[in-house]
Amino acid sequence: MNAIDLIPRGFALLVIQLPGSGARQPPLRAVHDRGHQRRLLYRIAAVVFVLFAAGHTLGFLGFKPPTAEALYVTAYLLFSAFLAWHLGYLAGSSPQAVAALGWIFSEVQTSG
């Protein structure tokens, strides 16, 4: 077992270059877990959307308004959950393709 094995996954090491120490050494473990972090955040958002959709549907069943607009909101929340889950999958494999779409998705959620 070496020192790298003692570091929990997801943590990155910083390399400090001291004056006069010569060439800078590469970090022991680069920050390659960013894709995993992005994937986890999108998956958490997807689970929250499913929970909101379930709560919204249960609330709709308890109080029936004259329109079916609440069912559209539930469908929107379920679609958002699917989209967040799929973006989480893509964030791990190709984060460049998801960057703009992720920001637009978060803007739609905060404005609507």
Describe it for me?
The protein contains three helices and no strands. The longest helix has 29 residues, at 34-62. The model is unreliable at 10-17 (pLDDT under 50). Helix 1 runs antiparallel to helix 2 (69-93) and helix 2 runs antiparallel to helix 3 (95-111). The chain is mainly α and 112 residues long. It has one domain. The protein has helices spanning 34-62, 69-93, 95-111.
Give short descriptive properties of this protein.
single chain; 112 residues; mainly alpha
Largest β-sheet summary: none
Count of helical regions = 3
Number of domains: 1
Helix content: 55-70%
Average residue pLDDT: 75
The whole-angstrom Rg is 21 Å
Outline? elongated
SS strand fraction: under 5%
What class do helices, strands and sheet pairing give?
Answer: mainly alpha
Cα(first) to Cα(last) distance is 51 Å
Unreliable sequence segments: 10-17
Number of β-strand runs: 0
Secondary-structure element pattern, one letter each: HHH
SSE layout:
Elements: H1 34-62, H2 69-93, H3 95-111
Helix pairs in contact: 1-2, 2-3
Give a summary of the structure in a few sentences.
It contains three helices and no strands. The protein has 112 residues and is mainly α.
